[in-house]
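S1.2 Input.
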Amino acid sequence: MSTHLHRKCLQYFDEWFKRGWKRKPLLIRGARQIGKTTAVRIFAEQSGLELIELNMEKAWSFASLVASNNPRKLIEAIEFELNRDISPENPLLFFDEIQVVPQLLGVLRYF
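S1.3 Output.
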């Protein structure tokens, strides 16, 4: 990713994040291996956010709850599987390779 595009991407992430409770989940699309995941990691670090990164190519047990369309249960299951609390104030919840579980996009609209 060029330096200019990199800065522009991070600026867009920052503007999105500052929308607070009014923001919708951010879907990042693009060709493979162009730096999408790296950009998210850099943004989280620069913003002082706790990054909770879930690569959906891994077999997560919480994935079975996606069909329930219940975001609260999904977050609780993720917390249980990761053995950590996910507070709404600070973390950046990042579902990498989400195309593996496309039903997850339906649940995310409720976040």
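S1.4 Remarks. The CA atoms of residues 5 and 11 lie 10 Å apart.
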